[in-house]
Request: fold
Amino acid sequence: MNAIIQKIKLILINLLGYRILLFTGDLLVYDRYRWLIKYLPRTRNGEKLLDVGCGSGAFTIAAAARGYHATGISWDTRNQHEAERTASLSSIKDKTDFDVLDIRSLHQHTSYHQTFDVCINFENIEHIINDNKLMIDIYQCLKPGGMLLFSSPNFFLHPISQTDQGPFSTIEDGGHVRRGYTKVMLEELCENAGFRIELISGCSGYFSQRITRIYRFFFGFHPLLAWLVVLPLRIIPVLFDGLFRRFFRYRDYSICMIAMKPRYATSQPSKA
Reply:
């Protein structure tokens, strides 16, 4: 059955492009995509972008489609091969690279240092124990004036499933090692690394969270069933989450941030 699902996915990618990856998981993935394209300008200058912890590669490919030369890094060889295949089917393979790399050793890859104009780090840092070091490593990868686009679970989130409440891992085994981040926690990480915060916002509002809860329930029976059940509901958050956020101040699931590396740095970032 999984092989059949993979074949269907490849056919859909071939027909519809990389965006199909944004609709094969829960709604939170598409929310992050919407936030990304809101704040990542289109370019014709071929700036370099690094997607730190790129997962399926959907955001790496999305960045390439907006004109960037995008590199996605992840430790998962299988995911990287799938991402390369998706990029190839999406006809932007020449604008993407997928490197197999443990982001905990990012500092060792000196060829990345001061190389990138933009870094993406979405829903990744909460899996890393030494988050301070990772933020410093990302800072080092950016050119002066470079930009970080970031998201992670909001510490004050409304739990979608029991895993959002812990227990959280004390080792890096693929699970979350912390509940999430507050505004002050992000300010602390950025100050220590040398970043200056441009914007703190959020994504994934009330309806996204509720429909994702439905998705995760049916996922326990079968991924295809979960996808089919929520497919007709996916338009609801696009239409109504913004209004619900505005009038009821319902807390977003993810906290999002834009941070800048100063163009004229006067000091070195702290050591991890």
